[in-house]
Design goal:
- The longest helix is centred in the C-terminal third of the chain and has 30 residues, at 1149-1178.
- Among the domains are: 2-25 and 1143-1178; 33-180, Sandwich (Immunoglobulin-like); 606-810, no CATH class; 818-994, Sandwich (Immunoglobulin-like), CATH 2.60.40; 998-1136, Sandwich (Immunoglobulin-like), CATH 2.60.40.10.
- The chain contains five helices and 96 strands.
- Helix 1 runs antiparallel to helix 5.
- The radius of gyration is 39 Å and the shape is elongated.
- The two termini are 15 Å apart.
- It is mainly beta and 1179 residues long.
- 48% of the residues are buried.
- This is SpaA-like prealbumin fold domain-containing protein.
- The chain crosses the membrane at residues 1154-1174.
- Pfam families: SpaA.
Length: 1179
C-alpha cells in the first residue's frame, strides 16, 4: 500500500511541474517586433538612386529608406498572426499614406505584401506599424521591412537626430545641412530614459505657412495674405511699381523670417492699412542670443558692423554691440554695472530696407491709423530715416506698434521710431538702437499736426532703448530743442514700468558753460510742452547729456503747457549731466513733478547720478551751474517728494544732501517728508552765477569765502543762499522718523541765517549738518520708500539742487494732495456653471487710471470696446496705479494720489477713475466709471520761508458711478478731510470686480480595440509652477489639482483650469486587465484654446517636481493635438490597451501543450481515486 501511495504522489508532482510549465508558457506578451531586430540600414536618394548613408549632412526633403531585418519566432505573433513596431521618437509617419513595403520568406521563397495584400498586410496608426502574416510557415520567420520617408519627417536638435529602432538599441544618427530652413530644426526631443507614454498621432498642420524665397514681386503685386516662411534669401524691388512703392498690407499677414534675409530694394517699404495686422517673427531667434561682458563708463553708443551681401553687394547688419547699465539694489543705494551685449546676426532673420526721406515713405514699416505691426523677433534695419513710423492722418483709429522682441536698428540717420499723435507704441521686449537725430534718436513722439498737444502714447513694460543720440549744439536757441537721446516727447504720454530699460543714450552736442544755461538736454528722455512721463517701474540708467538732465529732462523754461513727471517706482541711476544741471532728473521752469512710491514693495531709487557742471570752465574753485547730482529744479519749476532717505551723496561745494540757490524755496515737512543725513560736502567749489542781468545768483561765492575764512564745515547736508535784501528763511529740526539734530547755522531748534559780505557781494545763507540718532535713522528707514543716495555734484546739491519750489513731504495745511482709495475683487468663473470662487491677486496685476476732466460734461464718458472715451469735454491722463497683492479671501487695495499741481487754483474739479484693460482675453474687465468731483477753496495765507503762501482746503466731495451709460449719483463713500483721502464704497466692498473664465477638461476612457467605454480609470492632474516658461530653470515644481476616476460612462471632468497655465496629467490606475497610458501635458491658452501633448520630462519620486529632458519644453511637439471644446470644457478621448494572454498554436509545440493539459486532467482523476482509497482503508 505504501508503495502505491508513493507512486501516485510522484505522478502528481510530475504533473504539477508540467502544469507550472504550462502556466508560465501563457504569460502576457507585448508582441513587440523591436526586440527581434537584427539590423537597420539607412539609404538616401542621391542623383535619382538610393545609396548607403555615409554621415553626409542631408538637405531638406531628402528621401530616406530604412531597411529593417528581423527574425520572428512564431510565438511572437498574436492570435491574429500580427506584430507591431513602434516608430522611434523623432520619426513621424502619416497614417493616410503607405510608406512601407515588406517581405517575409519561408521555404526559400520571398513573398512581397502590401497594405491589403493576399499574403500579408500592414497598417500604420498611432506612431506604430502593425504587420500581419496570413499564413506563417517557418519558425523563425525572416522578415524584411522597408520604410520610405523624407528628411522633413524627422525632428532635429542642432541639426542632428538619433533614432533608436530596437530594444537592444539599434541606432542611427542623421545629420542635417545647416542651410536647412525648417522652423522645427530646434524643436526638442525625447531622451531614452524618460517618462514612458503611449504614442499619440501628430496632428497634420493645416495652417502651415507658405514657403517663399527669391524675388516675390509677383506675389506682392497679387496681394499678401496669411502666413509665409522664408526658406532662403527673399527680395522685393521696384518691379512692384515705381521706385518707392509700398508693399501694401491689405490683409492680416504673418512673415516668419526663419533665419533668412528679406531685402527691400529701390525704396520699397511695408504699408500697413487700417484694420490690418502685420506680424514679423524669426523662428530661428534662439540661434543668435546676445553675449554679455563687463564694460566701463556710461553714455555708450551702440556699434553696428555691416557686411556686404554676397549677391548684391549691399551692406547688411552682421554684428551689433549695445550697452545696458544694470543696477543691483543694496539697501538704500544701488551698485551699477555697465554690460556690453554683442549679437552676431549671421543666423538671424534680417529685414533690410533703403527708404527715401520723403515723408510717409521714409520707414521700413509705415502704420496707418487703425493698423497694427506686431514685431516679435528678428532684425529690421533701414538706411533711411526710420525703421517704424505711425501715420498722422491716413486711416482711422489708433495705429499700433507692439514690440515684444527682436532688434529695430537705425543707421544713425534719423529716429528709429517716429510716433505721430493718437497712436500707440507698446514695448514689452526687443531692442531699439543706433538712432541719431536732432531730437529723439530712439523715439520721436509727435503732437497733433506737429504741434504741442495731443501727442501719441508710449507704453514701455519691457524692452531696451539704448545707444541712441540727440545731436547738434543749439547754443541758447529755443527754436529747436536738440534733446532726448533715447526719447523726445513733443507731446503725449510715456509710461515706464516693469523691466523696461532706457539706458546709455546720449545728448551729445552743446554745453552749459560760460554764457549758456542748460536750455537743452535729456540723455535718456526729454519731455516738452504738455507731455507726461509716468514711471512706476523700470530703469533709466547710464544715459548722458552734454548739457542738462542726464536721465530725464522734464519741461523747458518756456513752452506750451506744463510737462509733468509722476514717479511712483523704478530706478534712475548712473546718469550724467556733463556741463549742466540735474544728473538724474531736471525739472524745468515749466515742469511739475511728484516723486512718491506706491509702497515699500515698489521703491524708488535715484542713485549714483552725477553733474560735472563747472569742471570744464573757470578756475579750480568756480564755474558752472549750481549743481544737482540726483535732481535739479529750475526757477518756477515744482517738485514734491514723499517718504525719502537722502543720504551718502557728495558735493564739491555745499549741501551734499539738499541745496537751494537764491530763487529756490524748500519746504521740509515731517509728514511723509525726508531724512537728510550722512552726506559729504567738501566746500571747494562754487558756481559762476547762473542768472542774467542784475540777478547773477552768485551768493554761493559769499558763503564759500565765509566758510574758507572761518574754517567751518557745517554745511554737509543742507545749504541755502540768497540776497541780503530778502527776508529770512527757516528750517526746522524735524525729519522723517524723528529729529535731524542739525548743527551749523542752527539754534533753539531752528535755523538762522549767516549774513556776510565778500568781494562787494552781500548775502545770507544757511548751512546745516545733521546728526540724527541711530534710533531715528531706523525709524526713517522703516517708513521710507524713496532713496536718493550716492549722487554727486561738482558744485552744490549732490542729492538735490533747487532753484524752484521743492517740497519734501506733505503739508495738508497749505496745499493738500488728494488721495483716492478703492478695493478690487477677482473671481474665477466655473466652466461648468455660473458659480465663481475668489482668486488671489499679485501686486499690480490689474491697472487703473485717473483722468482729469475739463470742459463740457453733457455727454457721459463711456467705453468704446476697450477704449475709455471722454464723452463731451476733454480728459487728461493723470496717473496709473496697480492693485496691492491680496490672498483669495481678501480684496486688493487700490491707492493713488492726485498731485496738487493739477488743481492749483480755487475752483471745481472733476476726475475719473477707471480700470484699464489688458490683453488677457480670459478676463472680463470691469468697465465701471467713477466720477469724482470736489471743490478747492482758498482758506487763508501762511508765511513759508519768507513767502506768503495761500492755504487751500478740499471740500464738497461727490462721487457718481457710470455703468453702461447709466449714471448713479452720490454713491456710498467715505472722506477723511484731515488727510484728504476718499474711499469709494468701503474697505469691505469692491468698487471693481473682474472675472476670469476657467475651463474644464473632460476625459473619456475607451478600449483601444473595440471602443468600449471603461470605468474605474484614475487620473491625477497637476499644475506647473509659473516659472516653467524660464527654460534656464531645469526642474519645475508641480502641485496636484485633483484626482478623479472615470464613471460608468468612462468619463470624468476636471474643472477650474486657467488660461496661460501648463498642466501635467497621468493615469495613476488603469482599469483591470488594461495597461496605463500617458503621461501628458496640457497647455491651456489665454484665448480659450488648448493643446494636448505627450510628456517629455522626468518625474521625481513623489511627483512633486518635473525635470526637463533634452527638449527643454516638457512636451513632445510632434504629438501635438488641438483639443475640441464644448462650451468651456475641452474634450479628449484616451484609450487603453488590454493585457492579452496568448494560447498555444496548433501543430508542433501546440500538440505538446495539449498533452500537458491532458496530464493535468489525469492527475486530477488520480487524486480523486487516491482520496477515496485512503478513506476506505481508514474505515
Amino acid at each position: 500500500m505504501k508503495k502505491q501511495v508513493g507512486k501516485i504522489i510522484l505522478c502528481l508532482l510530475t504533473i504539477t511541474m508540467v502544469f507550472v510549465n504550462f502556466t508560465l508558457s501563457t504569460k502576457a506578451t507585448d508582441y513587440d517586433l523591436s526586440q527581434y531586430i537584427s539590423q537597420v540600414a539607412l539609404e538616401y536618394e542621391k542623383d535619382g538612386s538610393y545609396i548607403a548613408y555615409d554621415q553626409s549632412a542631408l538637405a531638406d526633403q531628402t528621401k530616406l529608406r530604412f531597411n529593417i531585418t528581423a527574425a520572428l519566432p512564431k510565438t511572437s505573433l498574436d492570435v491574429n498572426n500580427s506584430i507591431r513596431l513602434t516608430m522611434p521618437d523623432h520619426l513621424a509617419l502619416e497614417d493616410t499614406v503607405a510608406p512601407v513595403s515588406a517581405i517575409y520568406s519561408y521555404a526559400g521563397e520571398s513573398h512581397d505584401y502590401s497594405r491589403d495584400g493576399p499574403i500579408g498586410s500592414y497598417t500604420v496608426k498611432d506612431h506604430q506599424i502593425t504587420v500581419t502574416i496570413n499564413n506563417p510557415q517557418d519558425d523563425p520567420l525572416n522578415v524584411y521591412l522597408q520604410i520610405n520617408t523624407t528628411l522633413n519627417q524627422l525632428t532635429f536638435t542642432n541639426n542632428e537626430v538619433t533614432l533608436a529602432f530596437s530594444a537592444p538599441s539599434t541606432t542611427i544618427t542623421i545629420k542635417k545641412a545647416t542651410e536647412t530652413t525648417e522652423a522645427q530644426t530646434n524643436e526638442t526631443q525625447t531622451t531614452p530614459k524618460t517618462v514612458k507614454r503611449a504614442p499619440l498621432k501628430a496632428n497634420p498642420n493645416t495652417d502651415a505657412p507658405n514657403k517663399i524665397s527669391g524675388n516675390i514681386d509677383d506675389l506682392v503685386k497679387s496681394g499678401l495674405s496669411g502666413s509665409y516662411q522664408l526658406v532662403g534669401k527673399t527680395t522685393v524691388d521696384k518691379n512692384i511699381g515705381n521706385i518707392g512703392s509700398p508693399i501694401n498690407i491689405d490683409n492680416d499677414v504673418t512673415i516668419d523670417l526663419n533665419g533668412n534675409k528679406l531685402q527691400l530694394y529701390d525704396q520699397t517699404y511695408f504699408y500697413i492699412k487700417s484694420g490690418k495686422h502685420l506680424t514679423i517673427i524669426d523662428s530661428q531667434a534662439d540661434n543668435y542670443k546676445p553675449t554679455a561682458t563687463d564694460a566701463e563708463g556710461v553714455g555708450k553708443l551702440s556699434s553696428l558692423t555691416t557686411e556686404k551681401d554676397s549677391q548684391d553687394n549691399r551692406n547688411i547688419p552682421s554684428i551689433l554691440d549695445y550697452y545696458v547699465t544694470e543696477p543691483n539694489v543694496n539697501g538704500t543705494t544701488t551698485t551699477d554695472t555697465t554690460k556690453k551685449y554683442e549679437v552676431v546676426f549671421s543666423h538671424a532673420g534680417r529685414i533690410y530696407s533703403e527708404t527715401s526721406s520723403t515723408s510717409g515713405k521714409d520707414s521700413t514699416f509705415m502704420i496707418e491709423k487703425g493698423g497694427t505691426l506686431d514685431f516679435k523677433s528678428g532684425v529690421a534695419y533701414n538706411t533711411g530715416p526710420h525703421v517704424v513710423a505711425t501715420h498722422g492722418s491716413n486711416g482711422s483709429g489708433t495705429g499700433t506698434l507692439n514690440l515684444s522682441g527682436g532688434y529695430l536698428i537705425g543707421n544713425r540717420n534719423g529716429n528709429v521710431i517716429w510716433n505721430n499723435a493718437g497712436n500707440v507704441l507698446s514695448i514689452s521686449g526687443g531692442v531699439i538702437t543706433n538712432g541719431c537725430a536732432e531730437n529723439g534718436g530712439g523715439v520721436y513722439n509727435n503732437g497733433t499736426n506737429n504741434g504741442a498737444t495731443g501727442g501719441g502714447t508710449i507704453n514701455m513694460t519691457g524692452g531696451i532703448i539704448t545707444g541712441n543720440e540727440a545731436y547738434h549744439d543749439g547754443n541758447d536757441s529755443t527754436a529747436n530743442r536738440f534733446s532726448g537721446g533715447g526719447i523726445y516727447m513733443k507731446s503725449g504720454i510715456l509710461n515706464i514700468s516693469g523691466d523696461a530699460y532706457i539706458t546709455n543714450n546720449t545728448k551729445s552736442s552743446g554745453n552749459s558753460t560760460f554764457n549758456h544755461y542748460s536750455v537743452h538736454g535729456g540723455g535718456g528722455v526729454a519731455a516738452d510742452n504738455n507731455s507726461q512721463v509716468n514711471m512706476s517701474g523700470g530703469y533709466v540708467t547710464g544715459n548722458k547729456s552734454n548739457e542738462a538732465g542726464g536721465g530725464l529732462y522734464i519741461g523747458y523754461y518756456s513752452q506750451d503747457g506744463l510737462a509733468k513727471l509722476t514717479l511712483t517706482g523704478g530706478v534712475i541711476a548712473s546718469n550724467i549731466a556733463e556741463t549742466g544741471e540735474g544728473g538724474g532728473i531736471r525739472i524745468g521752469g515749466s515742469g511739475r513733478g511728484v516723486i512718491r512710491a506706491t509702497s515699500k514693495d515698489n521703491p524708488i531709487y535715484i542713485t549714483n547720478n552725477t553733474t560735472n557742471t563747472g569742471s570744464k570752465e573757470g578756475t579750480n574753485e568756480s564755474g558752472g551751474d549750481w549743481g544737482g547730482g540726483g535732481i535739479f529744479i529750475q526757477q518756477n519749476g515744482m517738485l514734491n517728494i514723499m517718504n525719502a532717505i537722502i543720504s551718502t551723496n557728495t558735493a564739491d561745494g555745499f549741501g551734499a544732501g539738499v541745496s537751494a540757490c537764491p530763487t529756490g524755496n524748500t519746504s521740509i515737512n515731517t509728514d511723509q517728508g525726508a531724512a537728510i543725513y550722512d552726506n559729504t560736502a567738501n566746500g571747494k567749489h562754487y558756481s559762476r552765477g547762473s542768472g542774467a542781468g542784475s540777478e547773477k545768483k552768485n551768493e554761493d561765492y559769499v558763503a564759500h569765502e565765509f566758510y574758507k575764512n572761518n574754517q567751518r564745515t557745517n554745511y554737509q547736508d543742507y545749504f541755502l543762499a540768497h540776497a541780503a535784501n530778502v527776508g529770512s528763511y527757516t528750517i526746522t529740526n524735524g525729519m522723517l522718523g524723528g529729529s535731524e539734530e542739525y548743527q551749523g547755522t542752527f539754534d533753539n531748534n531752528k535755523s538762522y541765517e549767516q549774513h556776510y559780505n565778500a568781494g562787494g557781494v552781500e548775502a545770507k545763507f544757511i548751512g546745516l549738518s545733521a546728526h540724527p540718532s541711530n534710533e531715528d535713522v531706523e525709524k526713517a528707514l522703516a517708513i521710507a520708500s524713496t532713496y536718493i543716495s550716492g549722487n554727486h555734484s561738482h558744485n552744490h546739491g549732490g542729492g538735490i539742487m533747487t532753484n524752484g519750489m521743492l517740497t519734501l513731504g506733505e503739508s495738508n495745511e497749505i496745499y493738500p494732495s488728494f488721495h483716492v482709495e478703492a478695493y478690487k475683487a477677482f473671481k474665477l468663473k466655473s466652466a461648468l456653471d455660473n458659480t465663481a470662487t475668489n482668486l488671489p491677486m499679485d501686486n499690480k496685476q490689474f491697472k487703473f487710471a485717473i483722468y482729469k476732466h475739463t470742459g463740457d460734461s453733457t455727454t457721459l464718458p463711456q467705453w468704446d470696446g476697450n477704449e475709455f472715451t471722454a464723452g463731451s469735454g476733454t480728459n487728461e491722463f493723470v496717473a496709473e496705479m496697480g492693485n496691492e497683492d491680496a490672498d483669495k479671501d481678501q480684496l486688493g487695495r487700490i491707492y493713488a494720489s492726485i498731485p496738487n499741481f493739477l488743481y492749483d487754483n480755487a475752483g471745481d474739479y472733476t476726475f475719473y477713475l477707471v480700470e484699464k484693460d489688458s490683453d488677457d482675453t480670459s478676463i472680463t474687465y470691469d468697465h465701471t466709471i467713477y466720477k469724482i468731483q470736489f471743490t478747492v477753496y482758498a482758506s487763508g495765507t501762511k508765511i513759508v520761508n519768507n513767502v506768503e503762501t495761500t492755504t487751500y482746503s478740499i471740500k464738497d466731495i461727490k462721487v457718481n458711478r457710470i455703468v453702461d451709460g447709466t449714471r448713479t449719483e452720490n454713491i456710498n463713500h467715505q472722506y477723511d478731510s484731515e488727510n484728504s483721502k476718499l474711499t469709494l464704497l468701503s474697505n469691505s466692498e469692491a468698487a471693481f470686480k473682474n472675472t476670469e473664465q476657467s475651463y474644464g477638461l473632460q476625459l473619456t476612457k475607451k478600449d483601444a480595440e473595440n471602443g468600449r467605454v471603461l470605468a474605474g480609470a484614475e487620473f491625477r492632474l497637476y499644475q506647473f509652477a509659473d516659472n516653467y516658461v524660464d527654460k534656464s530653470i531645469n526642474s519645475i515644481d508641480i502641485s496636484e489639482v485633483a484626482t478623479l476616476t472615470t464613471d460608468v460612462d468612462g468619463k470624468l471632468t476636471f474643472s477650474s483650469l486657467r488660461g496661460g497655465s501648463l498642466y501635467y496629467l497621468k493615469e495613476t490606475k488603469a482599469p483591470d486587465q488594461y495597461k496605463s497610458s500617458g503621461p501628458w501635458v496640457i497647455e491651456v491658452n489665454k484665448d480659450g484654446t488648448a493643446q494636448f501633448y505627450d510628456a517629455d520630462c522626468t518625474e521625481n519620486e513623489n511627483t512633486t517636481n518635473l525635470t526637463r529632458n533634452d527638449s527643454k519644453l516638457f512636451v513632445n511637439k510632434e504629438s501635438e493635438i488641438v483639443l475640441d471644446k464644448t462650451g468651456y470644457v475641452f474634450n479628449k478621448e484616451i484609450t487603453n490597451t488590454s493585457i492579452k494572454y496568448k494560447l498555444p498554436d496548433t501543430g508542433g509545440s501546440g500538440i505538446e501543450q495539449y498533452y500537458q493539459a491532458a496530464f493535468v486532467f489525469i492527475a486530477l482523476g488520480l487524486l480523486v481515486i487516491l482520496v477515496r482509497y485512503i478513506k476506505r482503508r481508514v474505515v
